[in-house]
Design a protein that fits this description.
146 residues, alpha+beta, Aminopeptidase, seven-stranded mixed beta sheet, 7 strands, 29% helix, 31% strand, globular
Length: 146
């Protein structure tokens, strides 16, 4: 996959190829997905790669002394191509002076570990009471060079 990672348009976020990725990232029912798409995502920075459809996306925002990665997903056919790393890099570059934080479970913790995140245990989330949770943090890229 060689498509550039760039801000997604509202039409791309509303597209048929985006909804399965949002479900992959959030794992909630259709009503909750619609709420995330229509209410939550417009408040966040959303970047993705489009190549005949949205192949991956990340949604993030500044949160005090860090940038928080709220949602990330890569289409099954695009996994293993480095797209996930490129999406994380885009979130880190949004404010290169802040660390990037993500919360995840066993399904994705190894992804973050491979990228160099520090992993710590986290309290269970009431939405998924049987799943182990993790906090993942990676250091800032540093002050941009002028």
């Amino acid at each position: 996959m060689t498509a550039a990672v760039r801000p997604l348009t509202a039409d791309e976020i509303g597209s048929a190829s985006f909804l399965p990725l949002l479900w992959e990232a959030a794992g909630v029912d259709a009503d909750a997905l619609a709420w995330i798409r229509d209410v939550d995502l417009p408040k966040l920075q959303v970047v993705g790669a489009v190549d005949g459809g949205v192949r991956g996306f990340a949604a993030f925002s500044p949160d005090g002394d860090r940038t928080e990665l709220h949602y990330i997903a890569v289409a099954h056919e695009a996994r293993g191509t480095g797209l996930g790393r490129r999406l994380v890099d885009a979130a880190r570059r949004a404010d290169s002076t802040l660390p990037l934080f993500a919360s995840t479970d066993d399904d994705a913790v190894e992804f973050y570990r491979r990228l160099g995140f520090t992993i710590t245990g986290a309290p269970r989330d009431p939405r998924w009471p049987t799943r182990q949770r993790y906090h993942c943090t990676i250091a800032p890229l540093g002050t941009p060079v002028d």
